[in-house]
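Lecture notes, continued. The same structure-token format from the folding unit now serves as the input rather than the output. Read the line below as a description of shape only.
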């Protein structure tokens, strides 16, 4: 069995997918690179087929009708043959030395009992910015050994476990039954949130593995694009709010972390609606918070009257007149251009 399946969801990715694929090839025969062509209309399929022909047994291509990022990840989960599972977006890449260390570590852990999730650092590769921001977990996670939630520390605001840092055990991911919605952006939040309810064992490898590119004007995390697609952000937000009951999570530190993550996603939705500034967007903000109150009054009170909830509800915060500390946290999490 391959040690890891690396899934690349691709939609019209001809301009940058080669860089992504080339960064994964050094894994050699120990890994499987699954390129999921999600109904592309450019040369994505042709490029993918070329790599499959040149690297048989390593690169595998799956073509499907367009279903969005979530559908491509679902296909990857269904077809992965590796012991572990990693999503690498087609405009991102991985660091070669860190990649080798990740593969070595996964091999060592493959026979040491069942590991649910391995975490690494990721780097914001922001266009035009010389100093790169590294998201690490050295202050909150024990490194170099298997641990549980009871051994974790307190995550800072702006410090979260995102898709970029996660490697799941494939069997665990299938068992937890994750199914991402089709034709929906921002499903990476669901990928990094919903399975956590079942995660028991973790391992933190302190290497800067994943390189998260920020800079394309049409990128889904560009602030103006997120405002245009706010209904999809709200859809994901509502799924997170209803997917599980936080009060039923037994581990206090896991419950606290998941609340903080759910809170920041809700704050992101609220800030985008405020920054849009239209009567319709402000109505949607009110409806979002009414939805939370209807679903779970205890969760609503905790969010609404927490620091972030109070800041995004201040009457003087309208349009672009936002609390700078809150917006800085949001920028760090989302990586706005």
């Amino acid at each position: 069995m391959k040690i890891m399946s690396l899934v690349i969801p691709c939609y019209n990715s001809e301009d940058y997918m080669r860089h992504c694929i080339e960064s994964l090839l050094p894994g050699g025969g120990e890994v499987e690179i699954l390129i999921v062509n999600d109904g592309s209309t450019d040369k994505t399929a042709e490029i993918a087929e070329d790599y499959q022909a040149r690297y048989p047994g390593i690169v595998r291509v799956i073509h499907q009708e367009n279903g969005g990022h979530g559908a491509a990840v679902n296909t990857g989960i269904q077809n992965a043959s590796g012991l572990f599972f990693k999503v690498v977006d087609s405009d991102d890449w991985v660091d070669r030395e860190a990649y080798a260390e990740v593969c070595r570590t996964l091999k060592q852990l493959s026979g040491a009992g069942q590991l649910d999730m391995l975490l690494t650092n990721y780097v914001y590769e922001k266009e035009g910015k010389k100093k790169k921001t590294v998201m690490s977990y050295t202050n909150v996670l024990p490194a170099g050994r298997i641990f549980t939630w009871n051994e974790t520390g307190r995550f800072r605001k702006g410090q979260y476990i995102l898709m970029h840092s996660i490697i799941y055990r494939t069997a665990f991911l299938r068992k937890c039954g994750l199914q991402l919605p089709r034709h929906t952006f921002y499903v990476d939040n669901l990928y990094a949130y919903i399975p956590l309810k079942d995660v028991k064992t973790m391992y933190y490898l302190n290497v800067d593995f994943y390189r998260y590119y920020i800079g394309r004007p049409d990128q889904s995390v560009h602030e103006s694009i997120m405002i245009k697609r706010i209904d999809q952000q709200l859809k994901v937000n509502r799924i997170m709010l209803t997917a599980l009951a936080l009060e039923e999570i037994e581990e206090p530190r896991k419950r606290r972390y998941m609340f903080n993550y759910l809170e920041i996603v809700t704050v992101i939705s609220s800030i985008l609606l405020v920054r849009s500034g239209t009567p319709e967007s402000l109505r949607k903000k009110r409806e979002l918070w009414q939805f939370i109150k209807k679903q779970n009054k205890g969760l609503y009170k905790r969010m609404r009257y927490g620091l972030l909830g109070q800041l995004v509800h201040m009457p003087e915060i309208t349009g672009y007149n936002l609390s700078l500390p809150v917006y800085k946290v949001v920028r760090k999490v989302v990586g706005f251009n």
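Point for the exam: The chain has two domains: 4-214, 223-334.
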